[in-house]
Amino acid sequence: MKVSVIMVSYNMCKVLRQSLAALHRSVQNMDAEIILVDNSSDDHTVETITNEFPEVKITTANGGLSHCVNQGISMAKGEYVLFLSPDALTKKETISKAVDFMDSHAPAGGLSVRMLNMDGNYMPASKKTLPRRWVTLFKLTGLLKQFSKSRLSEHYIGRHNDEFDTTETDVLHDRFMLIRRSVMDTVGLLDERFDRYGANIDLSYRIRLAGFRNYYFPKTYIINLQYNRSGKFSWANLKSFYGAMFIFAVKYIFRLPALRVKPLQALYPAYELKG
């Protein structure tokens, strides 16, 4: 099987139906499977999706986002794993073009694509970079200085603002992350200590630490429906955001990550970008 699409939903049945309808068209000519992990929804998601999209493999979970994604990965059989947000609309060739790029770029570990809002406008967040507060964390802990020759030392708002430039990226955007399954087998699953925030940063970091490259691929796109953005500045969200920063610092600053790869010193060349 070529690609396994994993989606995690919590009380998003209405928008999920739109996303799955678009996704069905995107993979209908591919050797693909769609795995939906429903996180204990009470809006009849499981019943509705079972009836309307019988090809979707559905499982239920009760935990954080990373836990749910990992449960989906345990079911996946594809050469590639695609983490797709349930409020993202894919176009007909979105996934096939992304997979073709990965097939032709062996050093690529992961890929994200261009995002448009509902008005069709480019979203600069497509070229995901570390949030400014994370940059501050890296400076305070010395990690930024430690990797001064890497992309980590550049301006995180992104020097290359052209939305159509294919470039390497520090962080894969969590709304569309296409990752080689063999890379996942090397770097490990999502760290379930990261709940709402930080899991994609941590995974992207581990992919680069293992010597692979992450890419922003703009030759195709998704439409971001921006579902349920209320509560962005709620106490729970803020606690989760800053908690993720603390977890990351403890994991990588105060002790080395446990990875099944070469010693950290031997992997420094993975951070050197040519030209």
From TrEMBL:
Pfam families: Glycos_transf_2 (PF00535). Transmembrane segments: none annotated. InterPro entries: Glyco_trans_2-like (IPR001173), Nucleotide-diphossugar_trans (IPR029044). It comes from the Bacteria. Signal peptide: none annotated. Residues 4-185 form the Glycosyltransferase 2-like domain. PANTHER family: RHAMNOSYLTRANSFERASE WBBL. This is Glycosyltransferase 2-like domain-containing protein. It comes from Mucilaginibacter polytrichastri.
